[in-house]
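#lab-general

N.A. 3:47 PM
ok so I finally got the sequence cleaned up, no stray characters, all 138 residues accounted for. can someone with queue access submit it? mine expired

B.Y. 3:52 PM
send it over

N.A. 3:53 PM
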Amino acid sequence: MLVLAVLAVSYASSMRAFLHQRAEIAELKAQIDERKAAIDDLEREKKRWQDPAFVQSQAREMGYVMRGETPFVVLKDGEPLTTGATLSDPDDLPERTPTAWWVDAWSSVELAGHPPKDEPPPATTIDGSAEEQDEETE
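B.Y. 4:20 PM
back already:
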């Protein structure tokens, strides 16, 4: 009996070590699979960056323009709209009473006949300061 008990204890400790090693091997194989998947994703991303059309689209998203193109920035209340900006719902706008088209046309004719006098002329350069624009008008 004593011999059988000693053999059972020695086999039990060996079996415990065997099962622990099997679990560790399974965990390491899972890590290897995850890293292979990450490597595959990076390889795909690397191939995408080899495509000139993809590089151009990424540059446009960052705000770059091609040579000869004129960039425009949409402003709302003097501030550029961000990429996350949302438009308001037309149903939420206040109700306006519609006016006839000839009312708008006539106000345009009146404005053309009597333009505002005290407004400065439009700026000729975008990057000029306000002082430079004042000197140009004088």
